[in-house]
Amino acid sequence: MQQSPHTYEGSVVATIPSRTVICAEGFEGGERPAVTPPRSGLTGCPWRDVKSMLRDVGLRPTRQRMALGWMLFGKGDRHVTAEILYEEATKAKVPVSLATVYNTLHQFTDVGLLRQVAVDGSKTYFDTNVSQHHHFFVEGENDLLDIPDADVVVGRTPVPPEGYEVARIDVVVRLRRKAR
User: What is the pTM of this model?
Assistant: First the structure.
């Protein structure tokens, strides 16, 4: 999914169940800066790059992983659900089941190739941009847009219980089109 220029004014403040306060300072128009630096060691050949990425994280480059990886990583940063990727695979005549797509997405997530983004209890996206950043979720369009990490300020993060550490903080700001 391509990012498009937006104008945001003011601040967005949201409360999440842990009572963490999130403040997103607005920014004015223009293209948002790229969030992800290029992946190191890429050759520009998506098939070879996917094979290398899989081997680098200890996954065997099977035909199905290669095909799904090429579909995921060969198009730049994107947000997909298992159903979207399955539909793309079906149209491309890649012989995979929906269960295989789910398993592959979770395997890629477990080894750090993807980042899982839950927008509600029933919808999970997988993000090829694994750098620290946040998301806008466009309600009614089921679209995710990246928010650079520097544009979101998280305050009063709760102290985790003894023996735990904060792995990451995910902020999803829900948007809807203004009524005309």
Answer: 0.71
